[in-house]
Structure formats: structure tokens, C-alpha cells
């Protein structure tokens, strides 16, 4: 399943690197991080939305929304 995550507080390449690093600690199939958002592919039986939110929070940013995309 793919999810689009809107993230507040990102404004530079360092922000992208910090979020990408934290998301890489999760068991995601893929993750692509841009300024203000991330697109991840995951197995929901292995990774929860809460763990994604917590990972981004730990990097110092706030999740605005998580949407399922096709």
C-alpha cells in the first residue's frame, strides 16, 4: 500500500535527509522524501501509521496528514 504523508516544518535538504534517515529505520518497501511530503510504500501488517508519525516526529517535524494513494 502507498501512502502520501504531508509534513510541516521542512525547508531544506537537511530536513529531507533527516526524515529519510528516520523512515529508513522502518520496514518500508520504499520511501521518497521531498520538501513538505513523503511517499512511502508499506505492508500495513508490518508498519503502522503511528510508527510513521512517531518516526517523523522524532526527526523534529509534524505530520499534517497521511493519505492512501493508488
Explained architecture:
Helices cover 31% and strands 36% of the residues. With 70 residues, the chain is of the alpha+beta class. It has a single domain, classed as Alpha-Beta Plaits (2-Layer Sandwich), CATH 3.30.70. Strands 2-3-1-4 form a 4-stranded antiparallel beta sheet, with helices on one face. A hairpin with a 2-residue loop joins β2 and β3. It is globular and about 30 Å long. 23% of the residues are buried. The model has no long low-confidence stretch (mean pLDDT 96).
Q: What's the arrangement of secondary structure elements?
A:
Elements: E1 2-8, H1 13-24, E2 30-34, E3 37-41, H2 49-58, E4 62-69
Antiparallel strand pairs: 1-3, 1-4, 2-3
Largest beta-sheet details: 4 strands, antiparallel
Identify the CATH class. Answer: Alpha Beta
- What is the subunit arrangement here? single chain
Number of domains: 1
Widest sheet: strand order?
2-3-1-4
Radius of gyration using CA atoms only? 11 Å
Order of helices and strands: EHEEHE
CATH topology: Alpha-Beta Plaits
Number of DSSP E strands: 4
Strand content: 35-45%
> What separation lies between the terminal Cα atoms?
8 Å
The CATH architecture name reads 2-Layer Sandwich
Brief summary:
The chain is 31% helix and 36% strand. By secondary structure, the protein is of the alpha+beta class.
Please describe the structure with a list of short key phrases separated by commas or semicolons.
alpha+beta; Alpha-Beta Plaits; 36% strand; 70 residues
